[in-house]
Amino acid sequence: MVNRYNALRNLALMALLLSGAALSAQTATGTINATLVNKSGIALVFDTDAGGVALGASGTSAASANFGTVSAFGPLSAGVTRPSVGPVTFTVQTIFDVNVIEGGLTSANYTLTANLAAAAPTGISYKIDAVSLTTAAQTIQTNGAYNADTAHNLGLVVSMSAPGAGGPAVGSPISATINFTATAN
Amino acid sequence: MRVNGSIGRSKLVLVLCCVLYTIAGQCQTSTGQLTISMTVQSSINLIFQNNPSVGTNGFCPLTNSGTNNVGLDLGTASFTGGDSLACVGYIHLSGTTFQVSSAFDVVVTKANTSSPNYRLAAEISTAPPANVVWLVNGITLTNTAFTALDASDNYATAITKTLQVQVRNTVAAQTLLETVTFLATAN
Predict the structure, then answer these.
(1) Is-above-0.90 flag for pTM?
(2) Searching chain A, which residue's CA lies closest to the CA of residue B114?
(3) In this structure, is residue A11 part of a structural domain?
(4) Is A42's CB within 8 Å of B41's CB?
(5) CA dist B171 → A54, B130, B134 (Å)
(6) Structural domain of residue A154, as residue ranges?
(7) Which residues, other chains included, contact A73 with Cβ-Cβ below 8 Å and sequence gap of 6+?
(8) What domains appear along chain B, each with residue ranges and CATH number?
(9) pLDDT single digits (tens) B115-171
(10) In what helix (H) or strand (E) does residue B4 lie, and over which residues does it extend?
(11) Between B36, B113, B114, which is nearest A65 by CB?
(12) Which residues of chain A have a CB within 8 Å of the CB of B30?
């Protein structure tokens, strides 16, 4: 009877040992199948030019340029020049930079177009370089270099006529938005 | 059925082309918005310029003509010897006083204003020596306040003004120098 008990106990112990040995050797593995789609793209940002007015939100695609108070004969803000005066209009001008950043493209350069978001205020017209802007897209540059600041002149041609006689409103802020589009060539 | 199948394949090819075109880097665009702001202010501008008769007696040439900062040389004058420059007008006003003079034009331009005309005044920079008088068109100038010359001059029109210096014969020999400031004010 005792021998039988001992035999059963030994069997139980062996089973326990074998069970422990089996547990310590367990492993688990997994794999991750990763994929990345590297898309090409371009991004347009405006940068302040050293010779021009300091842009608001410089370095972004939604910047602002404040010319301050302009007049045919009075003082101008820093970064604003007056290349021509009279007899019918005067022009004030500043310089700003456009930087089109590209990635994953084989495109060599880009075409830049611009248009006014809305009709120009009375007595004022807007120019980028030598191009007079309208609400329809106009080509500004056909071979812009990527990843570099490209300077452009922003000119405001202001009628010298009095308000109500073809001239702009005087003494109150006037604003306009210019939309730019860069297209990879 | 055959026709439909052809159209279906054409669409597939077109879509693939467009996808490949995009992947290859074409058709890529990016936009930005630049907002411009400014405030227009009305202004007027005054310049001096040579009179069309410049060079003749009474019309000496200005240096830097066409600007708002010019020079006018009236030469060397004396009660007994007249003036050294032929362009200077020289007369004896009396037995004790002589006058030298030269005329030039003032042009005032306006922008972005409905002002119909402007008024003109002038002032000399320093008090002249005793028995020396500076005048414009016969109106004596002082260094204490602007003296009105005209009440309503027209814009963009040359207004001829004559600068006169009257000197009594008791005045010691010296250089007479003044900066004459003209002030145009929109009416």
Answers:
(1) no
(2) A162
(3) no
(4) no
(5) 58, 7, 14
(6) 41-184
(7) A85, B43, B44, B45, B109, B111
(8) 43-186 (2.60.40)
(9) 999 999 999 999 999 999 999 999 999 999 999 999 999 999 999 999 999 999 999
(10) helix B2-23
(11) B36
(12) 41-44, 61, 100, 181-182
